[in-house]
Write a structure and sequence with these properties.
Strand order of the largest sheet: 3-2-1-4-5-6-7
Enzyme class: oxidoreductase
EC number: 1.1.-.-
Order of helices and strands: EHEHEHEHEHEHHHEHHH
Family: Belongs to the short-chain dehydrogenases/reductases (SDR) family.
CATH architecture: 3-Layer(aba) Sandwich
InterPro entries: NAD(P)-bd_dom_sf (IPR036291), Sc_DH/Rdtase_CS (IPR020904), SDR_fam (IPR002347), SDR_oxidoreductase (IPR051911)
Strand content: 5-15%
Helix content: 40-55%
GO molecular function: oxidoreductase activity
């Protein structure tokens, strides 16, 4: 039986990914920071008789990651697939967001991935087999206010994943980056809530409007979970996998502009910006 470890499984993409693997017949190690949040998850596992074990693991902590992964390896011997999904988001302008928020985002979204990856790589390398799937974001390609801090963590994740893929391919270890667009998760709902922000920077409020408009026709996290499972089941060596109806269009749209055009677009007046979003994407972000 194939085994998979999924981080950040208390809700959203992580929860749906753990369930997708469990339903596909994998032995799933579902980890989360606080297992108190897993009551509904446990009920689903019980009702569907899924082979999913829930463990407490805080990816921000060296000790927590070491303890959890060592326990899994000691009992089961290997992990075939690692899904680095755990992530957090803080939104705000560079001036107004605290240094603590910048550090917290990087600790979870970047260093957390490294902790888990480095813990499992020696075993995968010894077995000359494995798959590491890192959940990044369209924000790993595109940096917008008020997501500068979040984008920085995802840019970093994409960069280290690309380097990692080069290092481990000779050991038959596949690395994939999943890049969701706007997905109907609590994280997206929180950005939508930026509409009520009192920021001195207009970008903070109007970007929340873009999320609110997109979430009127929501894309479920199950779509991302299905893509992650598909990558695992395939033999693809493709590195980047945009997911969702807006993911590839957003990436291509940004690529069509020079850096200066992109900055000018984001620095435009509210009226010009809203008109552009409606013209380019058919979304009323007001």
């Amino acid at each position: 039986m194939k085994t998979v470890l999924v981080t950040g499984t208390s809700k959203g993409i992580g929860l749906e990914t753990a369930l997708a693997f469990g339903r596909a017949g994998y032995k799933v190690f579902a980890t989360m920071r606080n297992t108190v949040m897993a009551s509904d998850f446990k009920e689903i596992i019980k009702n569907e008789s899924l082979d999913i074990s829930i463990s407490e693991m805080n990816v921000d902590s060296d000790a927590s990651v070491k303890k959890c992964i060592e326990a899994i390896i000691n009992e089961h011997g290997k992990v075939d697939v690692l899904v680095n999904n755990a992530g957090i988001e803080r939104h705000g302008s560079v001036e107004e967001l605290s240094m603590e928020d910048f550090k917290s985002i990087m600790e979870t979204n970047y260093f957390g991935v490294l902790r888990c990856t480095k813990s499992l790589l020696p075993i995968m390398r010894k077995n000359r087999k494995g798959c590491i799937i890192n959940v990044a974001s369209v924000a790993g390609h595109i940096s917008n206010s008020p997501l500068g801090a979040y984008a920085a963590s995802k840019f970093a994740l994409e960069a280290v994943s690309e380097a990692l893929a080069q290092e481990v391919k000779p050991f038959n270890i596949r690395v994939a980056i999943v890049e969701p667009g706007i997905i109907n998760t609590q994280m997206a709902q929180d950005i939508k809530g930026a509409l009520v922000s009192k920021s001195i920077y207009p970008q903070v409020n109007r970007f929340g409007g873009l999320f609110a408009a997109s979430l009127k026709t929501p894309t479920p996290p199950t779509l991302v979970a299905e893509k992650i499972l598909e990558i695992s089941e395939s033999n693809t060596w493709k590195l980047r996998h945009p997911v969702g109806p807006d993911s590839e269009p957003f990436i291509q749209w940004r690529a069509s502009m020079s850096d200066e055009q992109w900055i000018d677009w984001n620095a435009a007046s509210d009226e010009d910006w809203y008109q552009s979003v409606e013209q380019d994407f058919g979304l009323n972000a007001r």
